[in-house]
Amino acid sequence: MTRSSGAVRPRWRDMAGEAWRDLTSGSTHAVVWMVLWVALAGGLGWLDTSYVGGLVDRAVTHVAAGGATWILEAPGRISGPACDALAEATGVHAAGALRPAGKIATAALPGAPLARYDVSPGFGAVVGTGSRQGVLVSDQAAEQLDLGPAQTVSTAVGPIIVGGVYAYPDDGRRPGLGYALLSPTVAPTPFDECWLTVWPADAATTALVHTSVLPASDPNAAPPRLSQLNSTLAADFDATAQYTGRPTGQAPAAGLICGLAIGFASVWLRRLHLASELHCGVTRPALTWQILLETLAWCAAAFVVAVVVVMLTALRAAQDRTMIAALGLRPPVAGFAGALTGAIVASLGVREKHLFRLFKNR
User: How far apart are CA 62 and CA 260, in angstroms?
Assistant: First the structure.
């Protein structure tokens, strides 16, 4: 401390020491404010992280189970190249054409022939395998025949190289491909169906599948029929709308308000002690610096706890963990800024002239 004209002029490092003493002595009630901040601002971050993480998990399950895959049936009227080309459209994850090609017997299990389908080169992506060379075998058939990629299966038409194995569980999706062999072909013969995986769900994008239909030679031909691969799932599941309209969407604003209130209260309830420091000659800038350091100390500790909670929660999501964590950290970040702002605002409201009234009403 230095003196000039009878007034005490603390140095900044002196006020830092004073802040440390206040924190260690418990006069700031730092632990109380830290716990309250974690429960409110940190809790809001956890809520938003949990909600968005759950929404992502639901979307992943929906897409994996075929809820985002649509089938346009138009026997003998589907253009394979046109169907495959839909995969280039925005929002389309995969597209490919298919037509039944009877059954094919294997040397290992001649009494249990596989259903055989001719597919366009892009169809492998629809069932989750990007292989375009060799046939595609369902996981059930691969298990029965003890097959894997790059292996050869002996059939009634000769040996066939397996290019990939795809999963097709019995989870409500249309039956047919669970015990099957898919043969990619570039032959110009029209296909019977065009499969399209669209995510996020968008009716206009899904409607593009109709561009794969060739003109009908028979004017009485049945119109193309569009259906969902897995009809047991909600066809109108709109993850984008649920995300934008989620109840935790205003969590950052709520975190800011909570931070402001907690920061303000942590200083305002100590205004007798702070007014006495002003009465002893401490300058307002020095006092503000001290309050800022005290608030920063407990708020930083609380913020670290909130970050750990949000990160651990985000890691439980199936995908997009970085995005989910970034969203979940917004309320704690807002709450951190709010706490510092609230503390500074409260410090500006402390007046030396209120000392005796505060002391009397203590």
Answer: 40
Using the 8-state DSSP alphabet, how is residue 223 labeled?
A: P
Q: 90-101 pLDDT, tens per residue?
A: 999 999 999 999
In order of 215, 230, 270, the CA distances from 58 in angstroms are 39, 15, 48
Report in angstroms the alpha-carbon separations of 121 from 138, 178, 209, 227, 263: 16, 19, 17, 22, 62
The domain ranges of the chain are 11-60+243-360, 68-232
Highest mean pLDDT among 39-48, 99-108, 127-136, 270-279: 39-48
The CA distance from 140 to 127, in Å, is 14
Beta strand 191-198 with 7-9 is: unpaired
Closest CA to 82 of 118, 116, 127, 122: 122
Q: Are the beta carbons of 277 and 360 closer than 8 angstroms?
A: no
> Residue 318: its pLDDT value, please?
87
Cα dist. 198→63, 111, 154, 225, 282 in Å?
9, 38, 36, 17, 66
Mark out the alpha helices in 30-171 (DSSP H runs).
30-37, 43-64, 80-85, 123-126, 139-145
Q: How many CA atoms lie within 13 A of 85 on its CB side?
A: 10
User: For the chain, what percentages of helix, strand and coil (3-state, to nearest 5) are there?
Assistant: 50, 20, 30
Find, among 56, 61, 132, the residue nearest to 94 by Cα.
132
Cα 118 to Cα 80: distance, rounded to the nearest angstrom: 11
Give the sign of the dihedral formed by CA 293, CA 298, CA 299, CA 304: positive
Q: Which two tokens stand for residue 102?
A: 């009877």
List C-alpha distances in Å: 284 to 12, 23, 243, 353: 12, 19, 46, 13
Place of tokens 């409607």: 207
Rounded Cα–Cα distance for residues 84 and 133 (Å): 16
Burial class (CB in 10 A: 0-12, 13-18, 19+), 189: exposed
Spatial separation of the C-alpha atoms in residues 358 and 70, rounded to whole Å: 72
Q: What tokens does 33 get?
A: 């404010």
User: Can you tell me the mean pLDDT for 293-313?
Assistant: 92
Written as six digits, the tokens of 108 are 């290992």
DSSP H or E run through 176: none
